[in-house]
């Protein structure tokens, strides 16, 4: 799988440049073109320096045989980036998050979140703590929950894993079953027996589901394993699993829901985006 036109947002910082190694890998296909974009204040000295910076980075990439060009704009970042996406046929957005918190995040760190919400493109998000020398596609973690929604990116992620010879780990986090608190102790089976029976059923379903997907992926030549975890803290469990398997990338499906649907469907994605130090590849879906 390859992307034809990749937009990379740069602001002159080393953090923003951490997206470049992954973009270079994706640009190994001759049809792929990288577009380096920077938005800055309309001051002559700043604009001249920024354009020189983009020209230098583009020239550096071209020496590696990669098609690359730089564009600098002055004005409000979000609408200009979206305009650039629409006018240039972009099919992947690469950007870095500076990992701000509190008031500083509200002022400076919300740009990446706003862009993620404003576009339906897949987004490769690299966090400030990422080591750019680490192979981004070496070990991919794909959380699933058995739904069509979570599987919406399965084909794209498996294509990436095949093309980059990545190891792909499928993860299902099983939420503990809920038992009514007013269940009478005299009812048989007991509360504990009933809970264990329900939990065992959930584990068996997840096992069968993961074994089926793993078998299909392995049959297509993709190195695949799976994990099952029981927890009601889904983002935290995904992140701890990523640490445990030394994942280099977490990939998952997200969307633009709002209100109660955002609370229910988007809380896992929000928790991962907020707290993960791993690069993330987010796929949009309208399911």
From TrEMBL:
Swiss-Prot/TrEMBL keywords = ATP-binding, Nucleotide-binding
Tell me which InterPro entries the record gives: Rossmann-like_a/b/a_fold, Universal_stress_UspA, UspA
Family named by the database record = Belongs to the universal stress protein A family.
Keyword ATP-binding on this protein?
A: yes
* Name of the protein described by the UniProt record: Universal stress protein family
Q: Which organism is it from?
A: Dehalococcoides mccartyi (strain CBDB1)
Residue ranges occupied by any UspA domain in the UniProt entry: 3-127, 139-282
Q: Where does the source fall among the domains of life? A: Bacteria
Q: Report a single Gene Ontology molecular function.
A: ATP binding
The answer to whether UniProt assigns keyword Manganese to this entry is no
The record's section on Pfam families has:
Usp (PF00582)
